[in-house]
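Whiteboard transcription, Tuesday session. T.W. wrote the C-alpha cells on the left side:
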C-alpha cells in the first residue's frame, strides 16, 4: 500500500532541522527498502527548507501514521502539520530509477488537492520529466482526493502544468524540491 507523506516545516525551525539531520537520515535508513521518493522542499530562495516529502510502500494506514508521527523532526517540533494520504505510484518506479538522474534541472513537488470525480489519475503522455506521479486517495483507497507529482521542469508554471485539468482542484501547490537522503558516496 503506497502513501505520500508531506511534513510542512514550522516557521523558524531550520536550526532544529539541521541539528536533527543525522537522526532524520538514520530514521529513514530504516525504511530504505520501502521508499519510492524522498526529499526536502524549499522556499523561493532555495536556501530554507519548508517541508519534507516521502512516498513509500507500507503494509497499512497504521504503519503510515507511525512512520509520519514517529519521525524525529516531527517528534521534536520541526513540522507544523502533516499531509498523509494513500497514493498510487502510477510510474511503478522509485526516484532512483528516474532516467533523468539525481542532478540537472529544477525539481518540484506538485500537489493538486480536490474531491469528487477523479482527474489526472494517469500520468501525462510526455513522461520524460516525471520523477513520481499518482493520485492521492482516501484511507480506504476508494475516493480520489487529488494528485501528487515530483517533476523536473524549467519553472513552477511548467511544473504546475503536469496537472492537465487545473479546474478540478480546490488548490494547487507547487514547491521547489530536491532529491533527499544521504549524499551519494
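and on the right, the sequence the group agreed on:
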Amino acid at each position: 500500500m503506497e502513501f505520500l507523506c508531506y511534513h510542512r516545516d514550522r516557521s523558524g525551525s531550520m536550526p532544529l532541522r539541521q541539528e536533527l539531520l543525522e537522526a532524520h537520515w538514520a530514521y529513514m535508513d530504516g525504511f530504505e527498502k520501502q521508499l519510492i521518493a524522498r526529499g526536502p522542499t524549499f522556499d523561493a530562495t532555495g536556501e530554507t527548507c519548508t517541508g519534507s516529502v516521502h512516498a513509500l510502500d507500507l503494509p497499512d494506514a497504521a504503519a503510515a501514521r507511525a512512520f509520519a508521527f514517529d519521525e524525529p523532526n516531527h517528534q521534536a517540533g520541526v513540522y507544523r502539520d502533516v499531509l498523509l494520504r494513500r497514493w498510487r505510484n502510477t510510474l511503478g518506479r522509485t526516484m532512483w530509477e528516474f532516467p533523468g538522474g539525481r542532478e540537472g534541472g529544477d525539481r518540484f513537488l506538485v500537489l493538486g488537492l480536490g474531491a469528487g470525480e477523479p482527474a489526472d489519475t494517469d500520468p501525462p503522455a510526455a513522461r520524460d520529466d516525471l520523477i513520481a506521479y499518482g493520485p492521492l486517495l482516501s484511507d480506504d483507497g476508494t475516493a480520489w482526493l487529488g494528485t501528487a507529482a515530483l517533476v523536473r521542469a524549467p519553472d513552477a508554471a511548467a511544473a504546475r502544468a503536469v496537472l492537465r485539468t487545473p479546474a478540478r482542484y480546490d488548490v494547487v501547490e507547487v514547491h521547489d524540491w530536491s532529491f533527499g537522503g544521504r549524499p551519494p558516496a
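Someone added at the bottom: DSSP finds five helices and eight strands in the chain.
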